[in-house]
């Protein structure tokens, strides 16, 4: 599929990939221990279409077919997640041994994420011990796969796991703690730092974290809106970046964390080799209105000290998220200005959109626009080393069930047949040009 206006040329050695996560695609739930998501989805009314991920895309049994799709696409790397509940089951790492071998044989570099929200049932991020158990698990996985894996990711989106799962209750484990969920953020960040140490001890060469970020736009120049936006930015962006990059929490937030925070921050700030950014959209924020507001389809309680406002004047995806490629340039250049030499090389570990249909021209336009925005950020001096599309295939989209489709490959969830979409063909041609 030729492009009339080719995507700009990225530097030699730039890493091109796609991403998935274990709970969303693997299936084979009877061959692993239960996760908090299995418990959560068993409750009525928690998933939009009433579905579960017991089968999902059946990737555990169809991984060879999926690796062939990766090889046909021409990506350099595949970012997948390791299921901690599967590893805890008998022979659980055997599947990842086979998957990594298959990827290496296909010339696709494996990039495992050690935690993508599917916490084993019975563990709890409110408990400090979970961070210690996570480090033990990280060392176990690295000891088994480290001879073939160069690049590792500790956590995926601890911000969303804290906000949606523990503060607002719309994701597993379904708690509505509001600001009492902050220990969950701290313990995940501590788990990251401990895992970095465990991975280093196991000989891992390149380690990062995948944090979700987006610009926060004040609803107006009014000081109340600006203050609310600044607080939101501290809570959803800086709370998860600054402990890793600077070894400190934003002003006031460290006082709300449990334990010896100073000592923990020394662990959390273990140097990483690169910093992963998951980007989807900016957020417009104003002062509280005394009513609920909407955050990407999630209702935000009226008692919060900010309200999320609609972003007007931009197209939206089928999920209702605004499509703002320029905000990716804004985000990355702002990060470079804020963190300077403390910001290591950046990798875009997720970027994608939900659209229906196999002839998905909207997704092509979305990816094209964001690649151009990424290139502009690099021209402005941001050191970006890679880009991963979310996602390889349609999958179980958490509380949305199978109602949202982010994939380059269409999955018929009745037959599990895979069908590459138009966007798959477009990206394949882009990568052929980039690899010339």
UniProtKB/TrEMBL annotation:
Keywords: Carbohydrate metabolism, Cellulose degradation, Glycosidase, Hydrolase, Polysaccharide degradation. Gene3D superfamilies: Glycosidases. It comes from the Bacteria. It catalyses: Hydrolysis of terminal, non-reducing beta-D-glucosyl residues with release of beta-D-glucose. GO terms for molecular function: beta-glucosidase activity. One of its GO terms (cellular component) is cytosol. Its EC number is 3.2.1.21. Pfam families: Glyco_hydro_1. The keyword Protein transport does not apply. The active site is at 157 (proton donor), 350 (nucleophile). The keyword Hydrolase applies. Substrate binds at residues 24, 116, 156, 280, 390, 397-398. Coiled coil: none annotated. GO terms for biological process: cellulose catabolic process. PANTHER family: GLYCOSYL HYDROLASE, LP05116P. Belongs to the glycosyl hydrolase 1 family. This is Beta-glucosidase. It comes from Streptomyces prasinopilosus.
């Amino acid at each position: 599929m030729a492009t009339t206006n080719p995507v700009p040329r990225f530097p030699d050695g730039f890493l091109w990939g796609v991403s998935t996560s274990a709970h969303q695609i693997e299936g084979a739930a009877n061959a692993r221990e239960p996760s908090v998501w299995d418990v959560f989805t068993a409750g009525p009314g928690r998933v939009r279409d009433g579905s579960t991920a017991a089968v999902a895309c059946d990737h555990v049994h169809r991984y060879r077919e999926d690796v062939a799709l990766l090889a046909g696409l021409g990506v350099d790397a595949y970012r997948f997640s390791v299921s901690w509940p599967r590893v805890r089951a008998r022979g659980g790492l055997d599947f990842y041994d086979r998957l990594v071998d298959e990827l290496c044989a296909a010339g696709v570099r494996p990039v495992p994420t050690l935690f993508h929200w599917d916490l084993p049932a019975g563990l709890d991020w409110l408990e400090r011990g979970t961070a210690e158990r996570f480090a033990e698990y990280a060392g176990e996985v690295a000891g088994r796969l480290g001879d073939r894996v160069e690049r590792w990711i500790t956590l995926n989106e601890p911000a969303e796991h804290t906000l949606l799962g523990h503060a607002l209750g719309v994701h597993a484990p379904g708690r509505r703690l509001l600001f009492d969920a902050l220990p969950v953020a701290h313990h995940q960040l501590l788990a990251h730092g401990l895992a970095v140490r465990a991975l280093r001890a196991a000989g891992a060469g390149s380690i990062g974290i995948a944090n979700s970020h987006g610009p926060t736009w004040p609803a107006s120049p009014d000081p109340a809106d600006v203050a609310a936006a600044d607080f939101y930015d501290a809570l959803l962006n800086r709370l998860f970046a600054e402990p890793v990059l600077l070894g400190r929490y934003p002003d006031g937030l460290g006082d709300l964390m449990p334990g010896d925070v100073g000592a923990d921050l020394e662990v959390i700030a273990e140097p990483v080799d690169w910093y992963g950014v998951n980007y989807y959209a900016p957020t417009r924020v104003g002062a509280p209105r005394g009513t609920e507001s909407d955050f990407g389809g999630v209702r935000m309680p009226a008692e919060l000290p900010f309200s999320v406002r609609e972003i007007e004047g931009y197209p939206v995806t089928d999920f209702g998220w605004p499509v703002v490629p320029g905000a990716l340039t804004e985000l990355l250049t702002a990060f470079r200005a804020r963190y300077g030499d403390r910001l290591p090389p950046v990798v875009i570990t997720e970027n994608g959109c939900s659209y229906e249909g196999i002839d998905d021209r909207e997704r092509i336009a979305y990816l094209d626009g964001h690649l151009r925005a990424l290139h502009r950020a690099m021209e402005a001096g941001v050191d970006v080393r890679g880009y991963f599309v979310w996602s390889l295939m349609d999958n179980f989209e958490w509380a949305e069930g199978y109602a949202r489709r982010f994939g380059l490959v269409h999955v018929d969830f009745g037959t599990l047949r895979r069908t590459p979409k138009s966007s798959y063909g477009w990206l394949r041609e882009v990568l052929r040009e980039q690899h010339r």
